[in-house]
Design a protein that fits this description.
The protein has 379 residues and is an alpha/beta fold. Helices cover 40% and strands 26% of the residues. The strands form 5 sheets. The chain has a 7-stranded mixed beta sheet, sandwiched between helices. Bound molecules: S-adenosylmethionine (SAM). S-adenosylmethionine (SAM) is lined by residues 32-33, 37, 41, 66-70, 72-73, 90-93, 96, 119-120, 140-142.
Length: 379
């Protein structure tokens, strides 16, 4: 079976009758292809182009995607993103490897996509060992990216781009506390802001991994959508900047009374972390991405991408303030839950700034002191 995604054609794995209640279960396929991840791939194709035009120290550049399944992402980067000279595509699974080969042939992209049946860490270390300059690495595994992050960070060149998906959200959000401590080195508990916490746990982990290689990171775009976290970060080499990052951009998040959370102020009940407390979004990148997204009518998730980027652009100005949730605060105060717009309006009337957030439909960010936030919930 062949399907079209973006500008490429893809042979899909044979479902072999693995259908549950009439619905195809992606995880049961011999080779993984998840149509629900098309949004993730559409967005990543655009981010890579924006990175190429704003931040790439040279072009054309090389990309590595060592957990490629059907190869759809690699082929899309090669065909649709700007600035991409070559893509190294790998998967440890034999059937995946064979499918990548068929898909590279189907799209006539032999000259730009190299592929291998290799373990992801072996492929990345090999590229590093051979001195192949790789500027962008995409880690898109099942579950946690942790087993692959060291070799990805070690490989990515100065000024490069690291793209990471994590689907182990129960761990990142603090529902599985002992696993969070072992896997991410974080003391966590589930709080109303857990989706933002998940992104900040992953970024914090990536930052500490980068520091081990005298590298720093700068997040360009950090999302929690559907059931996964996706982050795009710039990576650079400088031991002094790396040290500054560890000293200034990592910290504990205070859990305050009435379901509030804050990096600085509050009479704390407890704290979680260490988390990334720095920026989540890069405004110039968001502007460039939005312009690209509006122009790319062929992308099937175009509308959703635009909506998410518009939200991100708005909240970016308050990104250093963790979001709060209207429903959680009202329930702590045993008060009626006001509409999100009402709370934002009241805070703005008092002279503070406030915006919605993509991390929660009932969430908002504000630079108001917590006492002012609370008083805007009381009659
Ligand atoms: C979530 S799928 C990748 C989806 C793909 N990136 C996409 O956008 O369609 C994860 C893939 O990683 C492969 N994989 C798992 N462990 C691996 C390892 N240690 N090295 C290389 N590939 C691995 C699996 O065979 C599977 O195809």
């Amino acid at each position: 079976m062949v399907t079209r995604e973006g500008k490429v054609l893809i042979y899909l794995p044979e479902p072999r009758g693995l259908v549950s209640g009439g619905r195809l279960e992606p995880a049961w396929m011999p080779v993984f292809y998840n149509p629900a991840m098309e949004f993730n791939r559409d967005l990543s194709v655009l981010v890579l182009s924006s990175y190429a035009s704003l931040y790439a120290p040279k072009r054309p550049f090389t990309v590595a995607e060592p957990l490629a399944a059907t190869g759809v992402r690699c082929i899309r980067y090669a065909l649709e993103s700007e600035g991409v000279g070559r893509v190294y595509c790998g998967d440890v699974d034999r059937e995946a490897y064979e499918l990548i080969e068929k898909n590279v042939a189907l799209n006539g992209i032999w000259h730009k996509v190299s592929f291998a049946r290799r373990d992801a860490n072996a492929l990345l270390s090999d590229l590093k060992g051979k001195g192949v300059p790789v500027l962008a690495v995409d880690i898109d595994p099942y579950g946690s990216p942790v087993p692959f992050l060291d070799s990805a960070i070690n490989l990515v060149g100065n000024g490069g781009l690291l793209m990471v998906t994590a689907t182990d959200t129960a761990v990142l959000e603090g529902s599985k506390r002992s696993k969070a401590l072992r896997r991410y080195g974080c003391k966590l508990q589930k709080i109303p802001q857990s989706k933002e916490v998940a992104a900040r746990v992953l970024l914090g982990y990536i930052a500490r991994a980068a520091a081990r290689y005298d590298k720093w990171i700068r997040p360009l775009l950090s999302l929690y959508v559907d059931y996964y976290v996706r982050v795009f970060v710039l990576v650079g080499r400088s031991s002094s900047r790396s040290l500054r990052m560890v000293e200034e951009e990592l910290g504990m998040l205070r859990i305050c009374k009435n379901s509030l959370a804050h990096f600085e102020e509050c009479e704390e009940k407890d704290s979680i972390g260490p988390l990334w407390r720095g920026d989540l979004f890069d405004l110039p990148l968001l502007q460039d991405l939005l312009a690209r997204a509006r122009a790319q009518v062929y992308l099937s998730s175009q509308q959703r991408i635009i909506e998410i980027l518009e939200l991100a652009r708005e909240e970016a100005r308050l990104q250093r303030f963790v979001h709060q949730r209207t429903d959680a605060i009202s329930s702590a105060l045993k008060a009626r839950t006001p509409k999100l717009e009402e709370v934002i309006g009241r805070l703005r009337e008092k002279g503070y700034d406030a915006t919605p957030t993509l991390f929660s439909p009932t969430g908002f960010r504000s630079n108001a002191p917590l006492s002012e936030i609370l008083s805007s919930f009381l009659p």
